[in-house]
Amino acid sequence: MRLPRIFRTTPFRLTLLFLALFASAASAFLAYIYVATAGEATRRTDQEITREMQSLVAAYDRAGIDAVNQSLIERAASERPFLYLLMSSEHKRISGSIEESPVEKFTGPPTWTTFSVTDVDTQGRTVKHPARGLQEKLAGGEILFVGADVGEDEAYVDKIIHALQGAGALVVVLGLAGGVLMSRNVSRSMAGVTEVLDAVRNGDLAARAHVRGTSDEFDELALGLNEMLDRLERSMAGHKHAGDAIAHDLRSPLTRLRARLETASMDVDAGKGDPTKALAQALEDTDGVLKTFGAVLSIARLQAAGAAPDPQLFDPSELAADISELYEPLCEDKGIDFAAEFAKDLQVRGNREFLAQALANILDNAVKYTPEGGAIMLRVRRRSSGEVEFSVTDTGPGVPDDDRERVVQRFVRLENSRNQPGAGLGLSLVAAVAEAHGGRLELDEGPGKVGEMGPGLRVALILPRAA
Amino acid sequence: MRILIVEDDLEAAEAMDRGLSEAGNACTRAADGEEGLAAARDGEFDVMIVDRMMPKMDGVTLIETIRREGDQTPVLFLSALGEVGDRVAGLQAGGDDYLVKPYAFAELIARVEALARRRETGSVQTLLRVGELEMDLIGRTVHRQGKEIDLQPREFQLLEFMMRHAGQSVTRTMLLEKVWEYHFDPQTNVIDVHISRLRSKIDKGFDRAMLQTVRGAGYRLDA
Asked: Which of A290, A327, A356 sits opposite B190 (nearest CB)?
């Protein structure tokens, strides 16, 4: 059997839990009230009976049975609410306000008992009142019973019990009503989110949850959902763009390759010489295609995974020193001044291999575009925000302001770099690595124009503070 | 050398067989994992080339099986899976080297030769000698014709690798993988520059160049 939806909601279940807790607390509280009021009334009656008994026993000890008898007669006339019975040692009634003792055993220690007395109310009806009494054996073997009509006490206790029952019911009703209201409210707040989920499930990626501006958890949830959908949409668009870009970037070299092989094959058929050169070219073309393909694959995997695989904690300066050791001779060979500056005691969490490759890509680019006599600087430092920054500054031609965003995108190569080798994926991969580590890639102008050179480029790979 | 090729792509296996046979090796081919396992149990090989993904039994299972049976033949994994994790999984299963498809043939030959050579030099060496060149692995010194050559630590590692594979072609990718321990392809000729530095130290001023460039493949250190 399925419960109605409202009973299955989390808020309602929570409400029930709270209700249970609240009810137990309330029961404890009500029980205390019961003991403190109704219990107190009973105790007080018992004390009064005991005191009366003591005063009568004292009179007996002082002046014997007659004095007690006398007292009882006197007291019966007064408005005392006590019930008395005095019996001889042969258990014959001597005097008192009740006819026979409610305690049947006449020997032994003082005995408490609960019984009922018959009374006539104002309308002349016979009513029974609950009563309570104490029976004691006097020194001479006579039996004395002192009791009290506790009808009023009992009525009082009954009232308290009724009140407590009412209060308990009120707790349950109010708690349930509150729970229903609360879960309704929460359900209403969730409805928007649920609708968006349904829409997305049905393929509408553009659906967004309404943010009410109340800055509560529901707004946070809606905001989080929207942000997630934004990312998802961007990523899907990215994949589509990647597909187009792969087609574009692989199609042209493959076309070239095919043409080359076809020409060579025709030349051989025509008996026109040696295809060796064409084959060597074709091999080179193939390697180019494979390199592009490899880079595209790495980027796609990083983006699909959304996080760097096998992250480790390590010193970024150590990694940078390692990479600069690899690149420094290359710079020197090209007549480029290479400088490095590494901050101490830094830590990042990430995939060493991917970060090494990202740094190598940035340096590859810098070396490629920096002319002889230029300079490259590799720095690792901690930003004031706590982030760790790897930066490579060169004195190459730089990238115009408007193009910086574009260079990072896949496959984009600026027009004036078409004559340089490389698939144009270098910085895209760096950006993918940065993103997979929760970081980012920043491009800035380098040191500015110096003679023929400049203005240069500053590429910064920024990683979040290692948690 | 006797080489077992376990590869389900028959054309690729054929090309490997031809190339390796031309280089003077005797090749045996198996077209899937089970066939490969039977061949490995039957014959004695110097190197096995094993594709990772094959029908019936994949390469990793195959190698795990023969390693459990005590077969220590060096294994080169071939795979279209080139992520670091895939590589580690292959090496943990008992592979000795890992080559990602597609590869240049020169790369394959160089790696197969390197694997076979490694088996020959089982004992721990303290002194490497290639012709006139002597490397003291404990004192970290290098001499040629008795003359000490001063090397940077990385140059030392590079030369050590070249000396351990003297007479064989080693590729740039192998050097980057084994000496620098990076598994990516740089867009620039970083390795060439390191080699030319090393070359200027060990060959300059001597009558004969030992460190040779092998066209289309990489480098070779000759005695």
From this structure: A327
